[in-house]
Amino acid sequence: MKNDRPRLPASFGERPSGARRFVGTPAALILFVTASLAGCTGVPAKDATTVEAPAATPAEAAEVVTAALEYHRLLATAAPAELASERAALNNAPRTPLVLVRQAILLSHPERPTNLPRASALLGAVAMQRTPDAIALHPLVRLLSDQLAERQRLEATAERLTLQLERAGQQLKDSQRAGEQLREKLDALTEIERTLPTRPGATSAPEPPTSPRKPPR
Fold first, then answer.
1. 100: pLDDT confidence band, cut at 50, 70 and 90?
2. C-alpha span between 127 and 43 (Å, rounded)
3. Which of 2, 86, 189, 205 has the fewest other C-beta atoms within 10 Å?
4. DSSP of 83-107, one letter per residue?
5. Nearest 5°: phi and psi at 51?
6. DSSP structure class, residue 21
């Protein structure tokens, strides 16, 4: 049976030969990311001594952003074996901005052990770069960074709630154990009282003394 699922890119260090290689990427998201390139808010401010690299053309910017978005889409349907192969391939690939973004996407994939702090660090490294490809990816990097930060916050909240539930469950068990021990002690005292011998006269009260009658006059 032929497998029609799209395969992951074979070359990780290079940009695709053209945007037409990638189909199914949300056009609205691509337009939003490429339209945000002019502002570039949230990236490090330019230093007076920094020499800026030539900016990417809109077509080049859209191309590299489309490559990152398509990679994100392909990973969503990748098998575990493919994810493991991707990890090995990316570790041996040149550390271009696009490769760093792909590594961050892979590290945050829900179907494998995630490493969100490491993924955030990789995105931060891209945000610090001023090459044309990095600048083109800055809007997408900000979106991914916000998503990772929210996931980390939710995971921390879930972990805290889990610990609180475990602590409350342990306290409930301790209370139940203490209640059982107290009931056992009360039962033992009741049994001891039942087996004690009864003292003579303990059940009948003594009669009150009678006063002598006075003789009639």
1. very high
2. 6
3. 2
4. HHHHHHHHHTS---HHHHHHHHHHH
5. -95, 115
6. G
Q: What is the pLDDT of residues 132-183, one digit of tens each?
A: 889 989 999 999 999 999 988 998 899 899 999 999 998 888 988 889 888 8
Cβ(66)–Cβ(25) under 8 Å?
yes
Distance CA 63, CA 34 (A): 10
Cβ distance 126 to 141 under 8 Å? yes
Q: List pLDDT tens digits, range 194-208.
A: 887 776 655 555 666
pTM, whole model, 2 decimals?
Answer: 0.57
Cβ 6 vs Cβ 12: under 8 Å: no
- Cβ pair 37, 135 in contact under 8 A: yes
Q: How far is CA 92 from CA 144, 161, 164, 166, in A?
A: 23, 39, 42, 42
The CA distance from 58 to 120, in Å, is 26
Q: Is the pLDDT of residue 26 over 70?
A: no
* CA–CA distance, 217 with 159 (Å, rounded to integer): 101
Which tokens in the block code for residue 130? 């001023």
The CA distances from residue 121 to 17, 91, 217, in Å, are 28, 15, 122
Q: CA-to-CA distance for 31 and 62, rounded, in angstroms?
A: 8
Structural tokens at position 162: 């889990």
